[in-house]
Predict the structure.
Amino acid sequence: MIIVYLLEFSRIVLASVFALSAIQKTLAFSTFVDTIHSFDLIPVRGCPAMAIVLLTGEWSVFISLFIGERYMLVGFALAFSLLTVFIMAIFTVFIRSMQIKCNCFINDDHNISTYTLLRDVGLLLVAISGWITWSMGGDRRQGPEIVWLLIVAIAGEFIVLHLRRPKITRP
């Protein structure tokens, strides 16, 4: 039974995070293209195309996890792939000692930091968890409705805490 709950938790968290990210990036497409350019990993002419590819991937994660059933595996695999790309891009920022804005959720006005890396690694672990639990047959929904409501509440709280950058102040 725990497998089913872990699968649903992973599904809700990733579908919500990728939907939120895709909506914000779609609405602020030029900012997203500028952010891709600031990483200095591809030529400036390729940035709009890369933005479209990444947005297509993010929307695909959301849609496949929202639909569920046999599409969940595709959603988890895409989430894993996108998060791996994002983590590698973050590492290049660290290696090159760059100070650039993440804009992962467009309104995120902070520079890429260890927090950004840990957030994406945490989401990567959620994707792996979903992939494994789906592979173990966790796609059979069981249990009382109150448990499902609890899972949605916990997943929602995880999303809020995970995406919100902690405010660290010095005395």
Observations:
- Confidence is low (pLDDT under 50) at residues 167-171.
- The longest helix spans residues 2-27.
